[in-house]
Amino acid sequence: MESQLEYHTALAWLEWQVELGADEAIGESPVDRFSAPEPVRAAASPVAAPVVKAEEADPVVEARLAAKRADSLEALRAEMEAFDHCDLRRGARSFVFSDGNPAARLMIVGEAPGRDEDIQGKPFVGRAGQLLDRMFDAIGMGRDHPDADQSLYITNILPWRPPQNRDPSPAEMAMMLPFVTRHIELAAPEIVVLMGNISCDGLLGRRGITRLRGQWQEVQGRPALPMFHPAYLLRQPAKKREAWADLLALKARLAR
Known about the structure:
alpha/beta
């Protein structure tokens, strides 16, 4: 009877071990079936090389290359419209390139488009533009004059309107100046008029229009005359007397 109990006890223990997962009667080393299994570690993967980003293009360098490629005013316009580094283009309605006669002896470089210019896609068409037209009409010149000797060619430092008509940032001016200088080279005017502080800053590297106005300068080997911007004259009508003196000096220079 005792041996029979031992048999059944041994059999029960064996069945219990099989249920626990025992599949060999004797192993080379003891196995603890009650402990948590060790986590399976994935094979170490080779360390990926750090991603090296391509160096971002310098907008000024890109602008110089684009401007250099342009061999005509039409090509320059296309290069500027395709230039994607200036964020102003994303908020502006229109690209404002120029107006007037490209063959004119006189080229006016303004600052940046305003609201009306942004709507119409032409420089100097708002209240300041209307005053500019009256100013030059007083000395027998105009953007629509059929005679190249008496016509005007007009552009700006920036072709896109800055938000709320703020001043252009140094970075915005730096990336657009190669196009402005190329614009002057291709139009080849005899005289350049710098309308306002921004154009003086860009092409002369100086501000202070009240000191600069009326004083002949040189831009790319051409005589250049800084003048008050018409928008400033609308705010300061008393300065129109000085603007008239500058117009007479300009007329005398063209008559030589």
